[in-house]
Design brief:
- The complex is a heterodimer of chains A (192) and B (205).
- Chain A is mainly alpha-helical and 192 residues long.
- The radius of gyration of chain A is 19 Å and the shape is globular.
- Chain A is built from nine helices and no strands.
- In chain A, helix 2 crosses helix 3 and helix 3 packs across helix 4.
- Chain B is mainly α.
- The chains are: A mainly alpha (192), B mainly alpha (205).
Chain lengths: 192, 205
Amino acid sequence: MENEDNDIVLVRRVQNGDKQAFNLLVEKYQYRIKHLVSRFIRDQVEQEDIVQESFIKAYRAISRFRGDSAFYTWLYRISVNTAKNYLVASGRRPPTQDVDMDDVVHIRGADGLVEINAPDRILENDQLVAAVKQAISSLPEELKEAIQLRELEGLSYEDIAEVMDCPIGTVRSRIFRAREAIEQAISGYVDE
Amino acid sequence: MSEEISRLIDGEIGTEQTELLFESITIGKQNAKSWGTYHLIGHVIRGEVSVTGQDQAMSIAQALEKEPAVSINSAYPVSSLGRYSSSGVISLRGANRSDIQSLGEVAANDYWRPAGMLAMAASIALVAVITFGPSQNLKRDVSDSVAQDVGAGSSTQLVSSTIEQQKFAQEFGEMLSEHGEFTASSGLNGLVAYAKLVSNQRLEQ
């Protein structure tokens, strides 16, 4: 089952009154949406407001989402429009060109756009990111390679098994063990 | 369970298991935490978290608590029909209407006030029409009047109207009785009958 199909399943659940299913979509896409919004708005606090507003708008409109496009594409449009409307409402000019969806997904690293209005939170975030990176670097090589092939290259388990020359069950196990180890390493940074 | 969640995130799980897994993730706090953390790990590996600030899932979830639950059977959240239904524009089909939803709420508030006043005025008018409007008594009143007029045909004072007018009055009374015999003497049905009469072609002559 493809990842987008998971989204459809979650959307259907939300459409049938399961609010918690929408929270899973938030968990899944909040960072990508935040990254997208950061291309329009520099202020950290404003970014968070726009992200929240985008998700709330998406929730309110989700009963009319029919799955003609991927959920993320739909959410992307809502977020871009929300960010642009916010800029117009606050007397600022929105960018003339839209941010390409692929750019948003593949942008790497900070680009200096963010104003440090919430240093504590950024520090927390920095610590979390550092902890995840540290945990990844501490992984046994075969676990690290498996999780990176999956998350970075987007390979399927079958392809990873071919690349790593091991059974698919081993790939499944390695990826899970990698995630489990990282989860354990960062448990102090993630809200209970 | 966590291993299944890991496979689910990677899209490596069967359709039949997906629903059950989501069921357990939405119910179980630990499973939901794993779902969030596993996605976070992916974002960090892909370098998508570097400018994103803190985890907003909690604050968004809190904001969503104020929102009514959604039902696919309704174009609007179930428990807020009154809040949304006035903004009929929003219910029109269209893929990109989500952005105007919040604007619709604002517009709804402005829209309700005059609509409410209009509805109140219409209600008063309805009561007035029902109270003083046509009833079956009209049949007797009108036909009696016509009978008196015809009976006193020699009197020039009583027959001040022309024969055509008398004929019209007779037809008018018959029509009222025809349409009124199937309706209540009061209430909305009586009004409907009256509406039919008003639109009758014979009246336009």
